[in-house]
Specification:
The protein is α+β, with helices and mostly antiparallel strands. A six-stranded antiparallel β-sheet has the order 1-2-5-4-3-6. Helices cover 19% and strands 40% of the residues. It has one domain.
Amino acid sequence: MLMKEEIVKIILKGVFTKNSVKCSEYFFNKVNIGKINFTGYGFFVDIVNTSEVTLNKDKLSALFKVNFDQQDIGAILWIDSINKWTLEVYTYEEEWPNDVAHIKLNFK
């Protein structure tokens, strides 16, 4: 089973890829993932960026089909400041699964 932080990093990489943001593994070692707040249909998580990566937009978004139950999920990265971001991940109708053994994002 994947740890929640691993799921966040996979989805964050997907959002960056979808929005043509180039980040190395170094970047993902320099972000601090805060407490994940589940809503039942997704979650919010605060991310503190301690890398040199800066984002110029106020938000980045992506729509994926994920391999657990082939359901659609959406993700929005809200950029509060250079160093503080909030990742919002949500499903459209299904509740978020309790256990995720693996995740693969397919861009829509």
